[in-house]
Specification:
Elements (H helix, E strand, L loop, with lengths): L14 E5 L2 E4 L2 E4 L2 E4 L5 E2 L4 H6 L4 E4 L4 E4 L1 E6 L1 E2 L2 E2 L8 H14 L4 E8 L4 H11 L13 E2 L2 E4 L22 H8 L15 E6 L6 H10 L3 E4 L6 H10 L3 E2 L30 E5 L7 H10 L4 E4 L11 E7 L2 E8 L2 E4 L5 E4 L3 H12 L3 H6 L3 H6 L17 E7 L7 E9 L2 E5 L5
Cofactor: a divalent metal cation
Family: Belongs to the metallo-dependent hydrolases superfamily. NagA family.
Keywords: Carbohydrate metabolism, Hydrolase, Metal-binding
Length: 437
């Protein structure tokens, strides 16, 4: 006959129940319990009486009113902790090793998923590096750290007059889809088997260059997101790109034609009166790339498309100083001073060295829009841009149990800031911060 087991000796079921917490639900923080499973790696239905009445979790964690958010998603990360993704190594097996080291450190910043970004480079680098940067998928384990959602190719099909720090000598035009294959590698644009994901998730390109405008529908048909960026596109050209299927704008305002009262340029496609779907857009909230008021204008223009990104370089997590950087065909130094990166002996901004949580807290301080809106810009909105609604960026049942637990730091007369306490990946705690009392 069956043996009744007392709770200490019952089989473990992998369930964790979070209680006395505030969950990010859309534009609100809701007082509600949350159940996750380390076996399935998913959020489970906490409202079902089955779990409340018949099943005991392996652990119940009282969070004392703290905030539970989906894991943060950075859709534009060039590198971190000393490793630049746009690096061609003599032994490319070491590329994968260095990437894993970055991912284990990156998750400790609250970023559980990201799009590794390769800047404008020669074809050889794309073709050799991209296979390492594709979606991690079912191969990802909790202890692996942050998860790649697919590579972002920022270039080399950019405008040479809006190149920013991209090496103008490696910029090219595409006349046919075969030109894209010749650059990125056909194997990185075509699934080898039915249902297999390709390494590239999205590309940034100037739609006015070559025949790129006509190639947007073909990219879209293959499941590749097209983002407008590093571009001289007029309002009319940007509108045409959106009409062709562009759904994203890379670091809005930076490396593009500025807003003009007679031609609003790329920014104009965010207007609420437009007949076309309004695209998503990235914002670098490091206090250097954009003025805080500019960020408020962008947010108010289209809150549901607003995505905070770091555009961070490999100097994230490193001390201040000058560091070598291979940029296309040249090697130069980047000088890091706090979160500010500049090309040596130049005033040219070279990405950032800020973390995504720092961007969130900057946005909170500058706009006072509230914690739910700030967190949505690094969870649900980037997930929607990537077509991963209900899988990433969500606490709904069935979503991946990637979580960040925050304390709320309050200063009289100022907006709250978020303090990272814990990070969970697939229902397993992977990082805990011990704060000094």
């Amino acid at each position: 006959m069956p043996i009744a087991l007392s709770p200490p000796f019952r089989p473990r079921n992998g369930l964790t129940k979070f209680t006395n917490c505030r969950l990010l639900r859309g534009d609100r923080l809701v007082e509600e319990d949350l159940w996750v499973s380390s076996l399935s790696g998913k959020v489970v239905n906490s409202q079902a009486a089955f779990f409340d009445d018949l099943v005991l979790p392996d652990q119940t964690i009282d969070l004392g009113g703290r905030i539970v958010s989906p894991g943060l998603i950075d859709v534009q990360l060039n590198g971190a902790f000393g490793f630049n993704f746009s690096t061609l190594l003599d032994d490319m097996s070491q590329y994968g090793k260095k990437l894993k080291e970055v991912q284990k450190l990156l998750v400790q910043t609250g970023v559980t998923s990201y799009n590794p970004t390769i800047t404008s480079q020669r074809p050889e680098l794309y073709q050799k590096a991209l296979p390492f940067l594709g979606p991690s998928g079912h191969l990802q384990e909790a202890e692996d750290g942050a998860e790649s959602l697919g590579a972002h190719c920022e270039g080399p099909f950019l405008s040479p007059t809006k190149n920013g720090v991209h090496n103008v000598d490696v910029l090219i035009e595409a006349q046919t889809y075969e030109d894209l294959e010749a650059c990125y590698g056909k194997h990185n644009l075509t699934p080898r088997a039915e249902g297999e994901q390709i390494p590239i998730k999205y590309i940034t390109a100037a739609p006015e260059r070559g025949q790129m405008m006509k190639l947007i529908p073909e990219l879209k048909a293959k499941g590749i997101i097209y983002s407008v960026g590093h571009s001289e596109a007029t309002y009319e050209e940007a509108s045409e790109a959106v009409g062709q299927g562009a759904t994203m704008i890379t670091h809005l305002f930076n490396a593009m034609r500025p807003l003009h009262h007679r031609n609003p340029g790329i920014f104009g496609v965010l207007g609420i009166a437009e007949s076309l779907p309004r695209p998503y857009f990235g914002i670098i909230a490091d206090g250097i790339h954009l003025h805080p008021t500019t960020i408020k204008i962008a947010f108010n223009s289209h809150p549901d498309g607003f995505i905070l990104v770091t555009d961070a370089m490999h100097l994230v997590g490193l001390p201040d100083g000058a560091y070598p950087w291979t940029n296309g065909d040249t090697t130069c130094n980047i000088v890091k001073v706090g979160s500010k990166l500049l090309l040596e002996n130049s005033d040219t901004i070279a990405g950032s060295s800020i973390t995504l949580l720092e961007c969130v807290n900057n946005f909170l301080q500058w706009t006072d829009t509230g914690i739910p809106h700030a967190l949505k810009a690094v969870t649900a909105t980037p997930a929607a841009m990537l077509g991963l609604q209900g899988v990433k960026g969500s606490l709904d049942a069935g979503a991946d149990a990637d979580l960040v637990i925050f304390s709320e730091a309050k200063t009289p007369g100022k907006p709250s800031t978020l303090v990272l306490d814990e990070v969970w990946k697939f229902g397993t705690r992977v990082h805990r911060v011990v704060h000094e009392s």
